[in-house]
């Protein structure tokens, strides 16, 4: 037994010195280490009291018992003093539950210590040891019950089973000291040895389970009610019935009758506290429900009177809810939208845009997905809508995708207008130099092999300054508008006509040949040669055109060469206003071309 208790002390020290152990658990297991040493020392003295003697030495045996009692008290104090971090009414409820359970153990101790007639036994020493043992055992049991009911302990659940069994077995031993005779010594020693062995097992289990619980603590939420107090009530009633049946109302019976009365009183107080807590809880619940109802009404009012549309759709895109703003936004009653696909409700120009929106938001974006859609009103008009979709499929209270939509038609029209003004000539409506370069870059990335050859036509009106000087700038502006319209008529829809400024125009022909570009240039010259009447004046729009043909990768060089060809056409009286530079067979880089003599 001494060896087992020394092993118990060593195992407790191992747990206390394990690095991840929490401070409160480390303090508890250090105390158990001291307890194990006291048990081992006490039993060693017990061996010494009997060694080589016919009868044990009374002083040494008393010291042995004292050490064991101190060890038990120290273990009980470690459990009693363990901090639970419970405050207010919760602490009071815990105390009542523990007191109810302890009454059952006190009743058991009274039954063991007290004789039926109330007369103490002749062996006063044995009575004193039994009373002291029971008191110390009750202290240890009190600490264990407190930790059990509170749900917070400095050991793991597996350790609690072995530790509780060891404490309970040791306590029962002291409860029955008076009832044991001389022939029960071996039973007493075997029980004590089993208790010591269970304590050692508990320490080893704690060390092993700390791989899963590094802190060594058990912390679980305490339930609203505890079962141990009700078990204690049943146990006290059963003990009372057994006592009355066997002995009647003896001195011991009266004591066992008073304890169940105390248990009933404690239970009544506990139930009254529970009733008070329930009343307070119901009152708080009523206040919370009232506040929730106010919040719901406020939210419903905000949604129903908001100008923005709120939709709730499922993972398949079916509308589950539509706010009243749908009627004003698209002319669709909200009730008719429920159960229909989102694309059918919004009726966008591009149905795939709605599918892409739902696919992107279902992919798991935390910040939401924002898109602009061109939708149709029931009256036939088109509306630009900005949709913000947020994934709430995993939210049990929503279970869908929330889509907030607002009408951005005016902003989109203004944006398109500003973009048009930034990329088009305000007089003729033709693209300007910026848009021409943008289309050339897009063509460079998107063109296939059949459209990689392009032609750049640089056009300049002849004697345009004379028109402005002699007939006014207003006539000159109208002439530029006429020229722009005639240029549009001479090219294909895929070609681009741009105005660079003044009387300079550029035509970009896509997927053409040198012969095709020449034919288009002659058609333009022929079309412009027809006179036009402006404010009673017959005006001729004669022009000179420079043409450069080559690959789309040479666009900047082609633009430069077309400008050079235009000036050559102006200076060449026999060129009929047209000069062509062909780069489809061979192309000289601009740096080498600049070094050639003009």
Automatic annotation (TrEMBL):
The keyword Secreted does not apply. It comes from the Bacteria. Gene3D superfamilies: 3.30.70.270, PAS domain (3.30.450.20). The chain crosses the membrane at residues 28-48, 60-82, 94-112, 124-148, 160-178, 251-269. Residues 452-583 form the GGDEF domain. Keywords: Membrane, Transmembrane, Transmembrane helix. The keyword Mitochondrion does not apply. Residues 367-420 form the PAC domain. Residues 295-365 form the PAS domain. InterPro entries: Biofilm_reg_signaling (IPR052155), GGDEF_dom (IPR000160), Nucleotide_cyclase (IPR029787), PAS (IPR000014), PAS-assoc_C (IPR000700), PAS-like_dom_sf (IPR035965), PAS_4 (IPR013656), Rev_trsase/Diguanyl_cyclase (IPR043128). Pfam families: GGDEF, PAS_4. PANTHER family: BIOFILM ARCHITECTURE MAINTENANCE PROTEIN MBAA, DIGUANYLATE CYCLASE DGCP. This is PAS domain S-box-containing protein/diguanylate cyclase (GGDEF)-like protein. It comes from Catellatospora citrea.
């Amino acid at each position: 037994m001494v060896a087992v208790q020394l092993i118990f002390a060593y195992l407790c020290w191992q747990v206390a010195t394990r690095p991840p152990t929490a401070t409160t658990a480390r303090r508890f297991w250090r105390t158990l280490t001291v307890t194990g040493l006291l048990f081992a020392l006490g039993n060693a003295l017990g061996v010494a009291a009997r060694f080589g003697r016919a009868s044990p030495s009374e002083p040494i045996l008393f010291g042995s018992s004292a050490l064991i009692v101190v060890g038990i008290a120290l273990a009980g104090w470690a459990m009693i003093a363990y901090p639970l971090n419970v405050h207010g009414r919760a602490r009071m409820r815990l105390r009542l539950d523990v007191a109810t359970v302890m009454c059952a153990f006190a009743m058991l101790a009274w039954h063991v210590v007290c004789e039926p007639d109330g007369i103490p036994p002749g062996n006063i020493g044995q009575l004193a040891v039994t009373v002291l043992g029971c008191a110390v055992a009750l202290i240890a049991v009190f600490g264990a019950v407190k930790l059990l009911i509170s749900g917070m302990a400095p050991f793991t659940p597996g350790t609690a089973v072995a530790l509780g069994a060891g404490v309970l077995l040791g306590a029962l031993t002291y409860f029955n000291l008076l009832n044991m005779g001389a022939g029960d010594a071996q039973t007493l020693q075997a029980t004590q040895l089993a208790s010591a062995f269970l304590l050692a097992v508990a320490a080893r289990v704690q060390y092993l389970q700390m791989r899963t619980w590094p802190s060594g603590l058990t912390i679980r939420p305490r339930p609203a009610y505890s079962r141990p107090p009700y078990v204690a009530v049943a146990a006290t009633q059963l003990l009372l019935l057994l006592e009355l049946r066997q002995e009647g109302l003896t001195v011991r019976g009266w004591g066992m009758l008073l304890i169940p009365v105390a248990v009933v009183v404690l239970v009544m107080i506990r139930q009254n506290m529970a009733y008070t807590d329930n009343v307070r809880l119901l009152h708080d619940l009523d206040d919370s429900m009232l506040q929730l109802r106010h919040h719901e009404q406020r939210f419903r009012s905000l949604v129903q009177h908001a100008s923005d549309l709120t939709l709730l759709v499922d993972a398949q895109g079916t509308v589950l809810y539509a706010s009243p703003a749908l009627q004003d936004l698209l002319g669709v009653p909200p009730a008719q939208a429920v159960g229909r696909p989102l694309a059918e409700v919004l009726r966008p120009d591009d149905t795939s845009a709605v599918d892409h929106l739902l696919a992107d938001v279902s992919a798991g974006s935390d910040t939401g997905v924002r898109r602009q859609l061109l939708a149709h009103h029931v009256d036939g008009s088109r509306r630009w809508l900005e949709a913000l979709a947020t994934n709430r499929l995993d939210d049990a209270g929503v279970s869908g995708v929330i889509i907030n939509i607002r009408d951005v038609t005016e902003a989109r029209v203004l944006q398109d207008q500003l973009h048009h003004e930034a990329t088009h000539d305000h007089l003729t409506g033709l693209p300007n130099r910026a848009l021409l370069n943008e289309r050339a870059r897009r063509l460079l990335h998107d063109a296939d092999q059949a459209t990689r050859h392009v032609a750049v036509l640089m056009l300049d009106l002849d004697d345009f300054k004379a028109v402005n000087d002699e007939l006014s700038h207003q006539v000159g502006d109208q002439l530029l508008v006429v020229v722009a319209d005639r240029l549009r008529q001479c090219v294909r829809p895929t070609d681009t006509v741009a105005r660079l400024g003044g009387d300079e125009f550029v035509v970009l022909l896509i997927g053409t040949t040198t012969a095709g570009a020449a034919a288009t240039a002659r058609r333009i010259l022929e079309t412009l040669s027809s006179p036009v009447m402006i404010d009673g004046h017959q005006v001729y729009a004669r022009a000179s055109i420079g043409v450069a043909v080559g690959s789309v990768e040479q666009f900047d060089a082609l633009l430069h060469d077309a400008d050079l060809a235009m000036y050559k056409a102006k200076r060449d009286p026999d060129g009929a206003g047209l000069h062509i530079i062909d780069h489809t067979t061979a192309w000289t880089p601009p740096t080498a071309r600049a070094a050639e003599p003009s």
